[in-house]
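Human:
Focus on the backbone:
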Amino acid sequence: MGILKFIMMSVVLSTGCLDKRQIETESNVTFLDVNNEEQILDNQEAITYLIQKEFNENEVDSSDFKEGVSFDLNEYVQDFFSKDIADKIQGNLKAIVDNDEKIFVKNMLDDSYVESNLAWLKTYQAEGMQYDFQEVNEIKYLEEQNRIQVVVSFLRKEENKIQRGILDYSLLYDQDSNEWLIATMDGN
């Protein structure tokens, strides 16, 4: 066990923070389960997970596809993940389904992020392409970076071909507006 892990475990044990918590170690990662949230200390950065699910990798059947957003992010509102953040991402997902560029860019951090995120929309929004956003796979807060990430999985239908994909939202806190805004959107 590395000295850093030993020190972290000693601090947790000495402060009595082991109430209903489990500590496991796997290759430089320490897991602390606290009140249904999981905090991971990796390379000294605290990451708090509200949700973390495996991605569905089953074969896709055309009957699996239902265009739209099949979840409500407001069901996950707690702690750092506010209703405002949930509504912004939910609105952005709906804008992708509707191919509505005006709503899509509404809650972006600034023009440079708008430009790069619009490239994502235009690349993956070919004529006749449809989306079925199926589930939330991850919501986490990266403390050191002051960043919230939300990962959702989807089905994308183009002509008769359906494929799985993920979309990873990264939100940053904007000091000028005093709100969390969409910075980047990565996906396939």
